[in-house]
């Protein structure tokens, strides 16, 4: 039957992975958009990101904005996160946590300087254990891991710029994510100085690129089997961010209301 042939073709594309990613987030408090268009400010062209999930809060003022931007990579080849030593305490806690708008960064730094991170401190600690590189194993000259990381960061930047264009005071916190449907490994040196591989379902790596200024952050990478768990964790992170910046949110909302 023709329908069976179409299904066979669909299963060989990346669409099933994108659909599963979107479905996992729709089960939680997220507005989910597939094939979301954003402006690539480097090239001044429109591009697409596979899945955009924006956290929903019925009591939100619209000031605090938490989103997860996801690039889905369907491939039979495995993926590898290279890991070294744990980062020192001097690592940039916000940069490693997510990509933030100017006002979002300001609110984060103010609370950090006042030792006031009550709700999200534990989440900001996890990137201390991030890897330093991400590769597709057994690949050729083209590195899809690098292009995926650059693409998802560009999409985060494009989303934040869109959200702050008419409302510069918005507290945006955007998380770049790569979802794969083949095995994922972490690679490190053991105590004997030999390479050691460990298969995992979720990992993260620190990544920097220029757009045109240098942007550094931690990118989460996971297999499709981890999607439901991650979506649940993402909702907890979003709720914690809203709790963390409740007072700043109110201040900025009152400022906006008085201005209008």
Distance between the termini: 61 Å
What is the general shape? globular
The main sheet comes to: 7 strands, mixed
Stretches with pLDDT under 50, minimum 5 residues: none
Structure description:
- Helix 2 crosses helix 7 (227-244).
- The chain starts with a helix and ends with a helix.
- It is α/β, with parallel strands linked by helices.
- Strand 1 and strand 2 form a beta hairpin.
- The protein contains eight helices and eleven strands.
- Strands 1, 2, 3, 5, 7, 10 and 11 form a seven-stranded mixed beta sheet that branches.
- It has helices spanning 2-11, 15-26, 93-97, 102-113, 121-125, 144-164, 227-244, 246-259, and strands spanning 30-40, 45-55, 64-73, 79-82, 99-100, 133-136, 171-180, 184-189, 195-200, 202-210, 214-223.
- The longest helix is centred in the middle third of the chain and has 21 residues, at 144-164.
- It has one domain.
- The mean pLDDT is 90.
